[in-house]
Design a protein that fits this description.
Layout (H helix, E strand, L loop, with lengths): L1 H200 L3 H16 L11 E3 L5 E2 L1 H9 L17 E3 L5
Antiparallel strand pairs: 1-2, 1-3
């Protein structure tokens, strides 16, 4: 009986424990259910947060991309603006240069117009002057024809006068030559007279002979260089000199006779041979 009592007590105790375990199990199940729900809620919240985070990342990336694009566009816009500004400056310079060129062309056009007007006036005056000159040329041609006739007549008269002058000149030259020869003969006679006087004054014949020899030597010596013997004659005036003196005077263009200044040429002096 006692043992049954113990068994019953144990059974009752075990039933209590089973009930307690059931309660604990139910509590655990409830807690697990609550925890699972919380976990699901947390997972759902995490999913929403992750989604929001991805969306924010996407939005931030999009914003960053758009900002980069905006910066690039701004940089491009600034570069284009600078390029346009440079182009505008270049165009402004070109326009200013074109305006300057246009002003210069306008000034040149005005200058050329003035030159053209002056040229037209000058051409008109030249045409008038040319007409006047034509009339004067016709008159001058007529006067020239008349003058030509008079000139031909004067030339004929001058030719006749030149012939007369030439004849008279030849005659005068001949007379001058004769006069020169007479003067030389007179001088020679004077020398002979003086020699005769010396002979009369001298007492010996030897002195007279020596004086004559000296005079003969002087006569045979070239009067130009007074050294060499006379061996050439000028056929223009028949004065006699040495060949070297005449050739030297011809080569140095002193082509006149040393005595009478008569002009001579290459064929007017010849060798002269004095001897037997």
């Amino acid at each position: 009986m006692r043992k049954i009592k113990q068994l019953e007590d144990q059974t009752h105790q075990l039933q209590k424990q089973v009930a307690t375990h059931k309660q604990e199990e139910e509590a655990l199940l409830n807690e697990m259910e609550v925890t699972g729900q919380a976990f699901e809620d947390m997972q759902e919240q995490n999913s929403r947060l992750l989604q929001q985070l991805r969306e924010k990342d996407d939005a931030n990336f999009k914003l960053m991309t758009e900002r980069i694009k905006s910066n690039q566009l701004h940089k491009l816009a600034r570069e284009e603006k600078d390029t346009l500004r440079e182009q505008v400056q270049a165009l402004s310079l070109q326009i200013e240069a074109m305006h300057t060129a246009i002003r210069k062309l306008e000034e040149k056009e005005r200058f050329l117009q003035t030159v053209l007007t002056n040229a037209e006036k000058e051409l008109h005056l030249r045409n008038q002057a040319m007409d006047l000159n034509k009339r004067k040329a016709i008159e001058s041609a007529q006067s020239a024809a008349d003058l030509k006739l008079h000139l031909e007549k004067y030339h004929a008269q001058m030719k006749e006068a030149q012939q007369v002058v030439a004849e008279k000149t030849s005659s005068l030259e001949a007379e001058a030559y004769k006069t020169k020869r007479l003067q030389e003969e007179i001088a020679q006679l004077r020398r002979k007279t003086e020699r005769m006087k010396k002979i009369e004054q001298a007492g010996t014949l030897d002195e007279v002979m020596l004086e004559e020899i000296r005079e003969y030597k002087e006569t045979l010596t070239c009067p130009s260089c007074k050294v060499k013997r006379k061996d050439a004659v000028l056929t223009k005036c028949f004065h006699v000199f040495c060949w070297d003196c005449l050739r030297t005077r011809y080569e140095t263009r002193q082509r006149k006779c040393p005595k009478c200044n008569a002009a001579f040429g290459a064929n007017d002096y010849h060798r002269l041979y004095l001897g037997s």
